[in-house]
Design goal:
Helix Hairpins; mainly alpha; rod-shaped; 182 residues; 5 helices; disordered N terminus
């Protein structure tokens, strides 16, 4: 005899199981993403540490000053009327500045590289925060669903709902009731 008021937990069970499966699949995807992000963070921090000495050297030598001097000198050479002796001296300076710039060129690329690496590092850290917050929400929801599933399984084993349990207790006559009738 099936009671009309009795909720059928077996119908909901498939929904709970499918949601648990979906959440665990999403959780494994996110965990894989966390692994990739943490590897990226690890390698980017190593790269930053390797490039920091070059960045410090670039700050000391400041190759941009050399580039500005070169451009000013080239502009002066092209626009100013001068004697061949002055032109020769300017060309000598230009060649010397170009040599110096070639020497510090790796410092320029290192400073731009370290800027890009730091941007990547900030991106990875923000992604890690997003993924961890989503993982936290999924874990909480999974705890709820697993608890619900445990309750459903326990009820299924007993095959009694809470309402039926209370109704069965009402049908029993206690010894007190029998003593009172006498």
């Amino acid at each position: 005899m099936v009671d009309e008021k009795k909720p059928d937990f077996r119908a909901d069970r498939g929904d709970v199981e499918s949601e648990i499966r979906k959440l665990t699949d999403r959780k494994t995807e996110l965990i894989d993403r966390v692994r990739k992000i943490s590897k990226g963070i690890k390698y980017k921090t190593i790269e930053v540490k390797a490039l920091e000495p070059l960045e410090a050297q670039a700050e000391k030598e400041n190759p941009f000053i050399l580039i500005r001097k070169l451009k000013k000198l080239e502009f002066r050479l092209s626009t100013q009327a001068s004697t061949p002796k002055m032109e020769k001296a300017m060309m000598k300076e230009i060649i010397d500045l170009e040599r110096q710039i070639r020497k510090v060129k790796p410092l320029l690329t290192a400073s731009s590289r370290i800027r890009r690496v730091r941007e990547d590092l900030r991106y990875y850290e923000s992604e890690m925060v997003k993924v961890e917050s989503e993982l936290k929400g999924i874990r909480e929801r999974l705890r709820e669903l697993i608890g619900k599933r445990k309750i459903e399984r326990a009820q299924e084993k007993r095959d009694i709902t809470y309402e039926e349990e209370n109704k069965e207790e009402e049908h029993f006559i206690s010894l007190e009731d029998m003593a009172d009738k006498d």
